[in-house]
């Protein structure tokens, strides 16, 4: 949006100054414009021919690798998130394994831990110490 406003202001300034130019300067500007357009038309077919020679997609044929960089950044972000979630799940599973192995190695049966009175007994037992 700012670029459009800026371009509009430049165009207005150039149009305003157009009336103040001499005819000789106007002719030179017109000749320079036609020369620039002819150069642009000459380079456009060369680029089209270069693109048709190789049917495969080449990164170097694109002057601006902005989309490639964005795709690689997104891929790196997704890879980092996946590694983070994987490491978190491994840590969580190892904690569960430690609790399970402690329960299985203990003398109390697992049903004792599901009893509500057992937790009350633990609370009372820890307060006496």
Task: Give an account of the 3D structure.
The protein is mainly α and 129 residues long. The protein has a domain at 1-63. It has five helices and no strands. It has helices at 2-18, 23-53, 66-105, 110-114, 116-128. The two termini are 72 Å apart. The model has no long low-confidence stretch (mean pLDDT 77).
Query: What is the global morphology?
Result: rod-shaped
- Averaged pLDDT: 77
- Rg, rounded, reads 37 Å
Structural class: mainly alpha
Strand content: under 5%
Point out poorly predicted stretches. none
Q: In total, how many beta strands?
A: 0
Quaternary class = single chain
Topology as a string of helices (H) and strands (E): HHHHH
Helix residue percentage: over 70%
Separation of termini? 72 Å
Number of helices: 5
Largest sheet: none
List keywords for this structure.
single chain, rod-shaped, mainly alpha, 129 residues
Strand and helix layout:
Blueprint: H1 2-18, H2 23-53, H3 66-105, H4 110-114, H5 116-128
What's the quick description here?
This protein is mostly helical.
């Amino acid at each position: 949006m700012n670029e459009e406003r800026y371009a509009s202001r430049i165009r207005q300034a150039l149009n305003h100054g157009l009336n103040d130019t001499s005819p000789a300067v106007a002719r030179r500007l017109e000749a320079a414009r036609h020369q620039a357009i002819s150069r642009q038309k000459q380079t456009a077919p060369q680029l089209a021919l270069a693109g048709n020679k190789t049917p495969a997609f080449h990164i170097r044929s694109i002057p601006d690798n902005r989309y490639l960089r964005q795709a690689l950044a997104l891929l790196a972000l997704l890879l980092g998130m996946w590694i983070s979630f994987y490491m978190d799940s491994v840590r969580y599973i190892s904690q569960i394994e430690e609790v399970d192995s402690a329960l299985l190695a203990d003398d109390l049966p697992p049903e004792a831990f599901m009893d509500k009175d057992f937790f009350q007994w633990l609370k009372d037992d820890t307060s006496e110490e």
